[in-house]
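Chain A, query sequence.
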Amino acid sequence: MLDKRSVSSHVFSTFKERLSDCAEARQNIQILDVGAGLGSSFKRIYDLGIGSRIDYTVVDIEDLHVATARTEIRRWLSERGHVIRDKSPRHIVATDVGREVNCQFVTADALRFAAESSDAFDVLVGQAFLDIIPLKTGLKALFKALRPGGVFYFPINFDGISALLPVEDKARDTLVEDIFHQSMDERNDGRTGGSQTGRQLLNILPLVGARIDAVGASDWIVRPLPGSDKYSHDEKYFLGCILKFMHNELMNSKRISSESRAEWFQQRCEQLELAQLKYIAHQLDYTGRFVGE
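Chain A, predicted structure.
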C-alpha cells in the first residue's frame, strides 16, 4: 500500500504509454520482474488493462520470496474472477474475458538469469532492486534480457534521505542516519549503488544504453492518520521493521555508544507506540527504453 501510494504518477503514466506501444507492436507482451517481493508491480501493471496476452516472469534469488509472490499473485487474480490453471508448481495461467496472463516464477540470480535470456523480453521491471546490485555491470546484465527498444521501469530507488521525526537530539539523529546510510554504502564492499542509487542512475543509465523518458520522486512518507492515534494499514509494522533494521546497523558501528544507541531505540519505539513517530525516505523512479550502447 505504501509503495502504491508513493510511486511517481508522472513516471508510471509515461511507463503506461510505453507499455501501450509494446501492445500495439506485439501480440503478447513479455515482462521480466526482478526482485518482485509480494507482486505489487504485477498488480499495478496488470490493472492498466493493456495487452490481451501477457507473459510475466518473476525472478528472485530467494525461493521463499518466489513462493510468496506466486501465492499472492494467484490469490489476487482469483479474487478478481480469473480462471486459474496451475500448469506446474511454478507456472500459472489466468484467463478473463478477452485476456490471458501466463505467470512463471523462477528462483535464480536475477543478473545471471537476465544475461542468459538474450533479447527475450519486451519489458524489464525492478522495484527497490537496483540499490543492492553493482549499478553499471548489473544494469548491463539486466538489459541483455531486453529486445532492442525494450521498456524499463525502475521504481523506488533510495536516494540518501531517511529521516525520523520528531527531532529529539539533532546531533544524535544525524549520526544515526549517517551510520544507516554508511551501512548501505559498505554493502558488498561498496560495489552497489548504496544510499545514493537514485541520483547515480541519472548518469549511469545513459552510459549503459538506456534512454530516460521520465524520472520522478517516490518518497515514502509515513505518519499517523490525521486526527488519530493510529497508522494506516500495516504502516506501524513497517515503521517497527525500519527501527529494528536501523538498530541492527547501529549495533555494528563503533561510532555510537551502546548507551546512546539504547536510548535512541527506546525513545523511538515509545514514539511508535504512541503514534508520534514519522518517517521520510527519499527515492526516485525511472522509466524509458533500452536503445543500446
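The mean pLDDT is 93. The longest strand covers residues 146-165.
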